[in-house]
């Protein structure tokens, strides 16, 4: 469950989201290791003035700093490609919802049914009930089925301020 000042992602509700969280942690670990290494090297170069004459014109160091980033990118790219393959599910959704963002409201269209369209405006603060959520409650809410495949298409007619 998500709480205030939580540094982790929310608990996953599906195996695919769990794999996405694992990939996020994997990529973040690699980025933190690179950042710490580069920061340490910059710190050491700032306070030391040692010069190694073999590193000034060596092809070995150039090969290392060319091949090492390529290997690191492979460690990030291969799990990412695996996840892209797993996420590419081709299934027939039971409902398709098209959400169109306008400047201060949202329009929704149920594409599978004929002429089911409506606009959703925010409820003004002075008209809220006691248990209402300020800037989150709307006059027409979306109704979607549970435990079924849903396709949501999101687009904008102009700039989206209300999101």
From TrEMBL:
<dbReference type="GO" id="GO:0042773">
    <property type="term" value="P:ATP synthesis coupled electron transport"/>
</dbReference>
<dbReference type="InterPro" id="IPR008972">
    <property type="entry name" value="Cupredoxin"/>
</dbReference>
<keyword id="KW-1278">Translocase</keyword>
<comment type="similarity">
    <text>Belongs to the cytochrome c oxidase subunit 2 family.</text>
</comment>
<keyword id="KW-0496">Mitochondrion</keyword>
<dbReference type="Pfam" id="PF00116">
    <property type="entry name" value="COX2"/>
</dbReference>
<dbReference type="GO" id="GO:0005743">
    <property type="term" value="C:mitochondrial inner membrane"/>
</dbReference>
<keyword id="KW-0472">Membrane</keyword>
<keyword id="KW-0186">Copper</keyword>
<dbReference type="InterPro" id="IPR045187">
    <property type="entry name" value="CcO_II"/>
</dbReference>
<dbReference type="InterPro" id="IPR011759">
    <property type="entry name" value="Cyt_c_oxidase_su2_TM_dom"/>
</dbReference>
<feature type="domain" description="Cytochrome oxidase subunit II transmembrane region profile">
    <location>
        <begin position="1"/>
        <end position="91"/>
    </location>
</feature>
<dbReference type="InterPro" id="IPR036257">
    <property type="entry name" value="Cyt_c_oxidase_su2_TM_sf"/>
</dbReference>
<dbReference type="InterPro" id="IPR002429">
    <property type="entry name" value="CcO_II-like_C"/>
</dbReference>
<keyword id="KW-0249">Electron transport</keyword>
<protein>
    <recommendedName>
        <fullName>Cytochrome c oxidase subunit 2</fullName>
    </recommendedName>
</protein>
<keyword id="KW-0813">Transport</keyword>
<comment type="function">
    <text>Component of the cytochrome c oxidase, the last enzyme in the mitochondrial electron transport chain which drives oxidative phosphorylation. The respiratory chain contains 3 multisubunit complexes succinate dehydrogenase (complex II, CII), ubiquinol-cytochrome c oxidoreductase (cytochrome b-c1 complex, complex III, CIII) and cytochrome c oxidase (complex IV, CIV), that cooperate to transfer electrons derived from NADH and succinate to molecular oxygen, creating an electrochemical gradient over the inner membrane that drives transmembrane transport and the ATP synthase.</text>
</comment>
<keyword id="KW-0999">Mitochondrion inner membrane</keyword>
<keyword id="KW-0679">Respiratory chain</keyword>
<dbReference type="GO" id="GO:0005507">
    <property type="term" value="F:copper ion binding"/>
</dbReference>
<keyword id="KW-0460">Magnesium</keyword>
<keyword id="KW-0479">Metal-binding</keyword>
<keyword id="KW-1133">Transmembrane helix</keyword>
<dbReference type="GO" id="GO:0004129">
    <property type="term" value="F:cytochrome-c oxidase activity"/>
</dbReference>
<feature type="domain" description="Cytochrome oxidase subunit II copper A binding">
    <location>
        <begin position="92"/>
        <end position="163"/>
    </location>
</feature>
<feature type="transmembrane region" description="Helical">
    <location>
        <begin position="27"/>
        <end position="51"/>
    </location>
</feature>
<feature type="transmembrane region" description="Helical">
    <location>
        <begin position="63"/>
        <end position="87"/>
    </location>
</feature>
<dbReference type="Pfam" id="PF02790">
    <property type="entry name" value="COX2_TM"/>
</dbReference>
<keyword id="KW-0812">Transmembrane</keyword>
